[in-house]
Structure formats: C-alpha cells, structure tokens
Amino acid sequence: MKKLLAAIVGTMALATAPVALSAEATKELKMAFDADPVTLDIHEQLSGGTLQLSHMSFDPLVRWTKDLGFEARLAESWERVDDKTMRFKLREGVKFHSGNELTAKDVKFTYDRLKESQDFKAIFKPFSGINVIDDYTFELATSEPFPLLLNTATYIFPLDSEFYSGETEDGKKKDAIQKHGNSFASEHLSGTGPFTVTSRQQGVRMEFERFADYWDEDSPGNVKKIVLTPIKENNTRVSALLSGGVDFIAPVPPTDLARIKRDKNSDLVTMSGTRIILFHLNQDKVEASRIRRYARPLLMPSTRKALRPKS
User: What whole-number distance in Å separates Cα of residue 12 and Cα of residue 274?
Assistant: First the structure.
C-alpha cells in the first residue's frame, strides 16, 4: 500500500474529512500530525487539531467539497425561507456513539453552546436564533441577510444533548466549557462520526476505532482502527513516513514537497482551502498607486514629521 501524505493549503477541514468505511473494514491506519487535539471538547478551542477531531468523531451539518462547494452530511437538505432564514432537514436514524438518536434538539443544544464558546461565538455573531420545527426540521435565522450561512454551518457538529446534560458526581455541569481545564466534555465524547476515541494520552498517542452504527453506509474504505501520533518536528514527521513508521502525515512541510514527490512509495495530496491568510491589493495595476507606493515621505519616529530634501 502506498503511503499517503497531505499538503494543506488553507484550512485543514477538507483534508481531514473522515476516512471512509465499509462492512469489511479491517485495516489499521497509522497517522502523524504536527499536534493532537488538546481536548475532546470540540467547542473549547478553534484550531486545526480540533477540526481534525470533529471530522473524525463527529459530523457537520454540511461540509466543503474538494471544488469548494457544499455537500449534505447530517443535514440531508436545506432551503431558503426568506433572506434571513434557512430551513434544514436532518437525516433520520442517525445514532450517536452513546446510542442516542440525533434530533433537532441536539442541533439547538449545539448552537446554544457555540454561542457561549469563547473561540466560536464571534463566528455565530450574525445569527439571531434557531427555531426547532419538529424532530428533524429546524431553521437558522440571522439578524440581517447573511450570504455565508452555509459556510458557517460547516462549523456545526451536533453534540449528543442527553450525553452532555446534567451534572457529574462531583456536581459539575457536563456541558460546561472550561478553557484548558478538566471538564466532563474535555474528557468524554459522544459524536455521530465514523470513529470513537478508545484511548488518549495527551501529546503522546490517540487511538480510534470504527463506529459500528455509523450512518454513512455508502462510504467505501477498509479502516477499522486509527493510531494518531503527534510529531511536531517537520523533519521527524517526514522521516517517519518515508521509513514506513506511519502511513499518513499532515501537514507536509513546503520545503519537503519535492522530496516527497520523488519517493515512489508515497502519494502527495494537495488541495485548496477556505482560509484567507493574506488579502493584498494589487498596487501595480494603477499608475497612481505605484507613484504613491514608492514616493512616501520618510517619518522620524520621535517627531513624526516628514523630512523632505532641500531645494
């Protein structure tokens, strides 16, 4: 089997879509990322590691495709009600790892929790509320017309409301979001995703096993178990792959792209992302812009006065 790598451009959500499964899943996949998730609470921190975990052990309402479109996941369909409201229809019969069935109340529970998350609430600021119509139908509403509603829906990975409700034996709320703390949600997980977390040593190793009742039975694949090892050092991570110690690494350092391409036992996968890292105006397109760009006065830090050459 060829070893697989992923060179990521922009966000890592697409590169970490769950490894597809089938009834004959028997293989173990060894992966190495530059970091592992710092918590099992997917609302505690917005990071690449968290999104990796979200796609492996949860499912979003919709997700990005390789050509930057949207495809249905837990939401099987959606339609515009008006310029501020989108109605979603959930798939029926989807099970959480706990055995509970996914309903619209779980989506509302998740939405309300995202609005309280320090890392996610800014993303959902344009939203004014969620309206549950029945067990499998709900509406997302925004304060003003918002063209990026589906973009934002890719961040909604429904949580198991029954699993995360109530209190622990020591009286702590199970749905509490505790930054860098030991909360119930940071140590326990019940999602709808293809893999359950079976073992976790922070910064050392995570193990996942295929969820037998995963709803997406049409996905092909043969992976039963995943072992994730965090390897922060770029050279060490690449060497682990080329030597056969792991089957998949992400991200691939840009300086090693040519080296990977030359390796006959490796496949290099690159794809576009949705994250804008730098947005720069073209200052060479208009003549006046070029003049202003290169003819700026020199400013003295102490006086902030412009120095001009003597005539």
Answer: 9
Strand pairing category for 3-8 and 27-33: unpaired
Q: Which residues of 206-240 are buried (b: 16+ CB within 10 A; e: fewer)?
A: bbbbbbeebbbeeeebbbbbbbbbbbeebeebbeb
Q: What percent of the chain has pLDDT over 90?
A: 64
- Interstrand relation of 137-142 and 127-134 (parallel, antiparallel or unpaired): antiparallel
What is the reported pLDDT for 139? 98
CA atoms within 13 A on the CB side of 295: 6
Using the predicted structure, report yes or no on whether residue 132 has a pLDDT greater than 80: yes
Strands 266-271, 3-8: pairing kind: parallel
Predicted model pTM: 0.81
Render pLDDT for 278-309 as a digit per residue (tens, 0 to 9). Answer: 778 887 777 765 555 555 554 444 444 444 44
Tokens of 33: 């990322």
In the chain, the domains with their CATH numbers are 1-42+198-311 (3.40.190.10), 59-192 (3.40.190.10)
Cis peptide bond prior to 254, omega within 30° of 0 = no
At 103 the three-state DSSP class reads coil
Q: Where are the beta strands (DSSP E) in the chain?
A: 3-8, 27-33, 62-64, 70-72, 75-82, 85-90, 127-134, 137-142, 195-201, 205-210, 223-230, 248-250, 266-271, 298-299, 306-307
Q: Name the DSSP letter for residue 297.
A: P
Whether the CB-CB separation of 309 and 297 falls below 8 Å is answered with: no
Instruction: Give 190-244 pLDDT, tens digit per residue.
Output: 999 999 999 999 889 999 999 999 999 887 678 999 999 999 999 999 999 999 9
Q: How far apart are the first and last CA of the chain?
A: 74
| Residue from 18, 32, 50, 9 nearest 244 by CA | 32
